[in-house]
Amino acid sequence: MRQETWQQFEVEFQRALATVELDPPAGVTAACSLIEALCKAYIEDEHLELPSKEIIKDLWRVVSKDLGWLQDLLLTKISTASFLVCFSG
Q: Model pTM?
C-alpha cells in the first residue's frame, strides 16, 4: 500500500484507540471502519473485485480468500472482542 495510505490508517487507528477509553461502543465502530478501509485499500491495490455489499464480512471474505487465510476465525475473534468491549463493566 502507498505510504500516505498507511499514514492515514495510523491517524485513524490512534483515534479509535483513544475513543475506546471514553466510549467503548464508538471505539469498536471506529475499529470496524478502519478494518473496512484497510480491506478496501487492499482490494483496490490487488485489483480484486469489490463484493456487492461493502460490509466488513464480505470485504474480509475477498481479502482473506486472496491471502489464503481462514476468514471465519478472524471474524469470530473480532465479534468476540467487540462484544467484550461493548459489554464489559
A: 0.66
Which residues lie closer than 8 Å to 32 by C-beta, 6 or more apart?
Answer: 56, 78, 82
Q: Are 39 and 49 in contact (CB under 8 A)?
A: no
**What is the tens place of the pLDDT at every residue in 49-80?**
999 998 888 898 898 889 877 656 666 666 66
7-37 per-residue burial string, b: 16 or more CB within 10 A, e: under 16: eeeeebeeebeebbeeebeebbebbeeebbe
Domain interval for residue 72: 3-87
Distance CA 73, CA 85 (A): 18
DSSP H/E element including 88: none
CB atoms within 10 A of CB 89: 2
The interaxial angle of helices 24-45 and 3-22, nearest 10 deg, is 160
Q: How many domains does the chain have?
A: 1
